[in-house]
Amino acid sequence: MSVSSVTDISTNLSAPESKSLRAFLLLYTLMSLCILFLLAMIYYANKKEVMLSDHRLSMQLVNENYYPHLKNVYLNNGDAFPKDIAYATGIFDVDKNPIDSYMQDNSVDFDQVISLSKGYIHFVLQIEKNNKGAKYLVYETKDDALWHSGAVQEIMGYGLIILSVLIIVGIYLMRLFLRPMKDSIELLDNFIKDTTHELNTPVSVIVANIESIDKTKLGDKEATKIKRMDIAARTISNIYNDLTYLVLHHNIALEDERINLSCFIQERLEYFKMAMEQKKLHLDRTLADEVYLEIDSNRLGRLIDNILSNAIKYNRVGGSINVVLTDYSLKVSDTGIGIPKEKLSRIFERYQRANDTVGGFGIGLHIVAMIAHEYGIEITVDSKVDKGTQIELKW
Q1: pLDDT, tens digit, for every residue of 176-191?
Q2: Mean pLDDT: which of 14-18, 73-77, 212-216 is highest?
Q3: What does the pLDDT read at residue 211?
Q4: Sign of CA dihedral 348, 350, 355, 359
Q5: DSSP per-residue letters across 134-190
Q6: More confident residue, 344 or 39
Q7: Are 126 and 135 in contact (CB under 8 A)?
Q8: Which residues pair with 256 in a beta bridge?
Q9: Which residue blocks in the chain are alpha helix, DSSP H?
């Protein structure tokens, strides 16, 4: 599974799932970097220790010949401080101050037997009591830093190998992490496909038969019942259309045409007229004439219907709906229950519902967002709890 395939999978997840995936990736990345940094520090410290050990051994071998000569010539007899051919040396007193020194750096760390500081390696030995009052003999050599460059190169090489292993393990873990999410989404999508397929025939039959009834020949009681059935059938039809679009939109060819929005919206308002009457909603409309948009009619129907349907569904009984169409925008406002502020950022996610007291799959506004994105239409939502919601489309 490549990184690109993981990216493709993540784009099909909902926001909570994507958030969980991003948290996992961030945690795994930080953990991997910490592991790499820790291993690099350990390896670097080990290479430094090996280098110092090699120098310590070499200086100890030199000291076996140099110290007896230093003791006889300088410490006991007071002659000139002898030079060592291999290393620079220095003699320090009890207070760690230099008595005689050929070293370049006299800032020695006397707490360490051998140490590296300011580019110099120092090897410290305590010596016997002597006439000079000397306490320490120090050997010094310049660090050529070859071990450092070698260690860095090896760390980079081994680091790439370890990083590759961690990436492979991470991808495997990511697949395990994504599998239950993919399975649950696939299960829900398959359920929607099956449901959509089963709804097709009965919905068509119900709508066709209700439309064929001559309501003028019915009494008031029967007409009311048929009206309710008509509203219910239209609701089911809208749900069916949403489910069909959600499942099949990738396979539905675009057939963009120049559509008169003024007429189209007027038709959709007439379509929802009975639903608004049933809820006793007052409709205010201000529709500019001759507003055209280049768009697929099926997608435009899903876009407008879902916004109007929500304005009806989430409105209070006796409330109002205000529809304003201008040359460059459409505003639909209602006086309904509103959307809590904390849910506003998620209302366009699939299967997310702004309010659990009203039924629905939570796919209507997701479809609205899909179509708006497809045509570059900007959506803004302004909502206050118990005050109402306004959705504006700008093109």
Answers
A1: 877 776 777 677 677 7
A2: 73-77
A3: 74
A4: positive
A5: EEEEEEEEE---HHHHHHHHHHHHHHHHHHHHHHHHHHHHHHHHHHHHHHHHHHHHH
A6: 39
A7: yes
A8: 296
A9: 3-11, 15-70, 146-212, 220-248, 261-271, 273-278, 297-313, 364-374
